[in-house]
């Protein structure tokens, strides 16, 4: 009797082919994720990276390891009133490990971010294939789109975006683990409908382990980025959708074992969410973070209609950025999105249309799934899950529950974009199935879209290369945003371009005249002292306790010899005891007053806060110099120069110590080095001339001092030193003529007149 023998060899070949295709579909998006971001590796630490990493003692290893769990993302104590309350210890821990391994090399941080992005893409592939049961083509589209989407540039290339990327890894793993608990329990019951009591008890144990693992990963995601807690909401929606028949049986008597397990899972999610939320609120003492009007203007509006209209439009604008990421910016605060103050604003039409379509679509899906038992269940389930993955992670940033410190932040769209990409892939799959004859056209269009997005991502990476490229892109993209002009002004000021800095500060003030920092920083680049004071006073009128304005005005008054400035600087220090600049100024004031114990207290406090800052090390060296501890002072100057070879003042002071000790060759070498840094340094030329006089090389002394007198025509000290060099070089006539010329310009210069008298006495020319 003939029997049908299964083609085992054929089945194995088919299975092998399927596995190869799956591996290919998993590999391509991962490669795209790496290739699109690889050009961002050379980028420096920029913008928020500087505060969160370079200036964060929890990252650099200067604080105790446990401090990470007491401080916020920026290294400020969670109990501090100035803290942003962003508690992300696992992300900070990863930064600390990177800093330890790389020595603070930004390239290492970028490589880790790109690697994590690739991991997210890989895990997303598994979720799409194994959890959402998407086709290989739809999975490839969703994951490839996610891999190359330009909206992720801030999260991946911006180093502090690590919080979002690492949280996404944990987010997807938590979701995957939860869905495996649901799916595996259902599969086991399908295999054997007549389970014994002992067998039935064993399955919940396995399920409980998976659910517990999911909850633990959700906790880890939350400790990486606050958004991580929302994975519990997504898991809840998944369970409600896939176990919907148990929802309908919930209130009926005689619950099945599977329905009881469903209720248990939902209960675990709700209890876990409540506990995590209470824990998170407790960490911040149940206090809300304080933000400025500029951070989120709509949230400060007194009109409830303005808040509702604007917040809903901003949510839609975020969706638009996912759909069309043509305009991207590192900062969307202030006037980036003008407030919607009227019902007649045309932007409300977009809001109404968007929400109408979304609500109608979701309602139809829910109705069909729960009431009609539709045959297209898979598509409906996938639609609802993709919307959930897009909406639920975004909800904390929507201002729906609490005020956030931004209008739009591109990096917070990293996790919500997962749902968006799945939604686009699903739509692409439906189009290809419904209009099969146009499949090649749709495929070509999708490939073109991905190519354009990949190119945009590569270009956007270059924007994050340096402070200059980032800030210039902000001014180009959002010229109506005062903050981008302010940041550009700060950069130009640091570069010594005071004219450019003044322009951008004035633009920032034009757009937002009520921000004290804009006025205060404008004052720092103005040459007119009265205008500078006016800027500082304006800033203090806007905010009497503005520490930078108090410090700037106080420092200016101290330089003018007005003791009132000391109280202003001290006031700024009272506002912020860790204000290093104020500590250094107070240390300098105390040194000048010969109050060495007070000076030591201020300077050592600054040294404890940041021992690597050149100005802090210099102040400590100068303190040692002034207290005649020359060995320690010289050691400090040498330490600074080892790290910052072109630090001019340290070179000069080290040369001064060598000169005082008679080490004239060392002094000469240092002063020449100083002139290589700044060739028109009159003090360096004067000191070098004095060294040459002491070395007996009068010709070189005359040359150096002649240059110094041209650079400092009003300096009596330099001119008299030049006259001395001329005299000792037997150029007495030139010495006398130069001295007479100087006295004719400054007839009240008693020191020059006294020097001329002594010179005449030496030459028996008292009549002169």
From TrEMBL:
<keyword id="KW-0472">Membrane</keyword>
<dbReference type="GO" id="GO:0005783">
    <property type="term" value="C:endoplasmic reticulum"/>
</dbReference>
<dbReference type="Pfam" id="PF13181">
    <property type="entry name" value="TPR_8"/>
</dbReference>
<keyword id="KW-0256">Endoplasmic reticulum</keyword>
<keyword id="KW-0808">Transferase</keyword>
<dbReference type="Pfam" id="PF02259">
    <property type="entry name" value="FAT"/>
</dbReference>
<feature type="repeat" description="TPR">
    <location>
        <begin position="580"/>
        <end position="613"/>
    </location>
</feature>
<feature type="domain" description="PIK-related kinase FAT">
    <location>
        <begin position="580"/>
        <end position="743"/>
    </location>
</feature>
<feature type="transmembrane region" description="Helical">
    <location>
        <begin position="304"/>
        <end position="323"/>
    </location>
</feature>
<feature type="transmembrane region" description="Helical">
    <location>
        <begin position="412"/>
        <end position="434"/>
    </location>
</feature>
<keyword id="KW-1133">Transmembrane helix</keyword>
<feature type="transmembrane region" description="Helical">
    <location>
        <begin position="108"/>
        <end position="129"/>
    </location>
</feature>
<dbReference type="InterPro" id="IPR011990">
    <property type="entry name" value="TPR-like_helical_dom_sf"/>
</dbReference>
<keyword id="KW-0812">Transmembrane</keyword>
<keyword id="KW-0677">Repeat</keyword>
<dbReference type="InterPro" id="IPR003151">
    <property type="entry name" value="PIK-rel_kinase_FAT"/>
</dbReference>
<dbReference type="InterPro" id="IPR019734">
    <property type="entry name" value="TPR_rpt"/>
</dbReference>
<feature type="repeat" description="TPR">
    <location>
        <begin position="682"/>
        <end position="715"/>
    </location>
</feature>
<feature type="transmembrane region" description="Helical">
    <location>
        <begin position="383"/>
        <end position="406"/>
    </location>
</feature>
<dbReference type="Pfam" id="PF08409">
    <property type="entry name" value="TMTC_DUF1736"/>
</dbReference>
<feature type="transmembrane region" description="Helical">
    <location>
        <begin position="159"/>
        <end position="179"/>
    </location>
</feature>
<protein>
    <recommendedName>
        <fullName>dolichyl-phosphate-mannose--protein mannosyltransferase</fullName>
        <ecNumber>2.4.1.109</ecNumber>
    </recommendedName>
</protein>
<keyword id="KW-0802">TPR repeat</keyword>
<comment type="pathway">
    <text>Protein modification; protein glycosylation.</text>
</comment>
<feature type="domain" description="DUF1736">
    <location>
        <begin position="286"/>
        <end position="358"/>
    </location>
</feature>
<feature type="repeat" description="TPR">
    <location>
        <begin position="482"/>
        <end position="515"/>
    </location>
</feature>
<dbReference type="GO" id="GO:0016020">
    <property type="term" value="C:membrane"/>
</dbReference>
<feature type="transmembrane region" description="Helical">
    <location>
        <begin position="262"/>
        <end position="283"/>
    </location>
</feature>
<dbReference type="InterPro" id="IPR013618">
    <property type="entry name" value="TMTC_DUF1736"/>
</dbReference>
<feature type="transmembrane region" description="Helical">
    <location>
        <begin position="441"/>
        <end position="458"/>
    </location>
</feature>
<dbReference type="GO" id="GO:0004169">
    <property type="term" value="F:dolichyl-phosphate-mannose-protein mannosyltransferase activity"/>
</dbReference>
<feature type="repeat" description="TPR">
    <location>
        <begin position="614"/>
        <end position="647"/>
    </location>
</feature>
<feature type="transmembrane region" description="Helical">
    <location>
        <begin position="136"/>
        <end position="153"/>
    </location>
</feature>
<dbReference type="InterPro" id="IPR052943">
    <property type="entry name" value="TMTC_O-mannosyl-trnsfr"/>
</dbReference>
<feature type="transmembrane region" description="Helical">
    <location>
        <begin position="21"/>
        <end position="40"/>
    </location>
</feature>
<comment type="similarity">
    <text>Belongs to the TMTC family.</text>
</comment>
């Amino acid at each position: 009797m003939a029997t049908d023998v299964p083609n085992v060899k054929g089945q194995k070949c088919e299975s092998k082919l399927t596995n190869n295709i799956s591996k290919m579909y998993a590999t391509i998006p991962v490669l795209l994720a790496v290739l699109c971001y690889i050009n961002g590796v050379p980028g420096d630490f920029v913008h928020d990276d500087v505060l969160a990493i370079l200036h964060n003692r929890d990252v650099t290893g200067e604080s105790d390891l446990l401090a990470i769990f007491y401080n916020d993302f920026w290294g400020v104590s969670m109990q501090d009133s100035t803290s942003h309350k962003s508690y992300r210890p696992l992300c900070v821990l990863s930064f600390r490990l990177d800093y330890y391994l790389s020595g603070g090399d930004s390239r290492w941080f970028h490589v880790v971010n790109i690697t994590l992005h690739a991991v997210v893409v890989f895990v997303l592939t598994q979720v799409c294939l194994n959890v959402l049961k998407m086709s290989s083509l739809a999975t490839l589209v969703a994951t490839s789109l996610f891999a190359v989407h330009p909206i992720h540039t801030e999260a991946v290339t911006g180093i502090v975006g690590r919080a979002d990327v690492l949280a996404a890894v944990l987010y997807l793993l938590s979701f995957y683990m939860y869905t495996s608990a649901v799916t595996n329990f259902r599969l086991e019951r399908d295999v054997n409908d007549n389970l014994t009591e002992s067998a039935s008890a064993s399955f919940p144990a396995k399920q409980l382990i998976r659910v517990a693992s999911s909850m633990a990963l959700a906790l880890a995601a939350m400790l990486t980025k606050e958004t991580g807690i929302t994975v519990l909401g997504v898991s809840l929606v998944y369970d409600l959708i896939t176990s919907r028949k148990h929802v309908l049986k919930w209130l009926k008597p005689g619950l099945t074992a599977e329905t009881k397990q469903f209720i248990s899972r939902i209960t675990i999610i709700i209890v876990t969410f409540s506990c995590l939320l209470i824990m998170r609120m407790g960490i911040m003492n149940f206090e809300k973070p304080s933000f400025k009007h500029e951070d989120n203007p709509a949230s400060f509006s007194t009109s409830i209609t303005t808040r509702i209209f604007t917040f809903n439009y901003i949510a839609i604008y975020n969706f638009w950025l996912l759909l069309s990421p043509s305009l991207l910016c590192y900062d969307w605060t202030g006037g980036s999105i003008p407030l919607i103050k009227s019902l007649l604003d045309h932007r409300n039409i977009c809001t109404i249309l968007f929400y109408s379509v979304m609500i109608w679509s979701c309602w139809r899906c829910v109705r069909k799934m729960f009431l009609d038992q539709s045959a297209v269940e898979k598509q409906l389930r996938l639609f609802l899950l993709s919307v959930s993955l897009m909406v639920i992670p975004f909800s904390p940033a929507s201002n729906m529950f609490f005020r956030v410190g931004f209008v739009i932040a591109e990096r917070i769209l990293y996790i919500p974009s997962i749902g968006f990409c799945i939604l686009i892939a699903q739509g692409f799959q439906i189009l290809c199935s419904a209009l099969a004859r146009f499949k090649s056209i749709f495929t070509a269009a999708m490939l073109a879209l991905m190519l354009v997005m990949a190119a945009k991502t590569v270009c956007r990476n270059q924007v994050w290369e340096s402070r200059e490229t980032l800030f210039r892109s902000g001014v180009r993209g959002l010229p109506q945003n005062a903050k981008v002009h302010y940041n550009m002004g700060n950069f130009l000021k640091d570069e010594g371009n005071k004219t450019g800095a003044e322009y951008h500060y004035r633009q920032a003030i034009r757009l937002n005249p009520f921000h004290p920092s804009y006025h205060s920083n404008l004052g720092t680049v103005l040459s007119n002292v009265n205008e500078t004071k006016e800027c500082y006073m304006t800033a203090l009128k806007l905010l009497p306790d503005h520490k930078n304005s108090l410090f700037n005005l106080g420092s200016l008054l101290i330089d003018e010899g007005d003791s009132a400035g000391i109280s202003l600087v001290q006031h700024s220090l009272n506002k912020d005891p860790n204000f290093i600049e104020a500590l250094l100024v107070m240390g300098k004031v105390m040194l000048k007053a010969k109050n060495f114990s007070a000076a030591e207290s201020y300077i050592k406090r600054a040294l404890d806060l940041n021992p690597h800052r050149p100005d802090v090390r210099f102040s400590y060296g100068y303190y040692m110099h002034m207290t005649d501890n020359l060995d320690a002072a010289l050691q400090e100057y040498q330490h600074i120069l080892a790290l910052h070879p072109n630090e001019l003042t340290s070179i000069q002071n080290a040369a001064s110590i060598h000169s005082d000790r008679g080490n004239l060759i060392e002094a000469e070498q240092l002063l020449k080095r100083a002139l290589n840094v700044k060739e028109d340094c009159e003090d360096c030329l004067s000191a070098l001339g004095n060294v040459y006089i002491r070395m007996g090389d009068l010709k070189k002394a005359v040359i150096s001092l002649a240059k110094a007198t041209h650079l400092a025509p009003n300096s009596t000290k330099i001119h008299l030193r030049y006259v001395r060099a001329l005299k000792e070089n037997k150029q007495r006539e030139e010495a006398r003529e130069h001295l007479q010329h100087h006295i004719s310009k400054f007839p009240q210069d008693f020191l020059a007149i006294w020097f001329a008298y002594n010179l005449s006495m030496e030459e028996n020319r008292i009549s002169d």
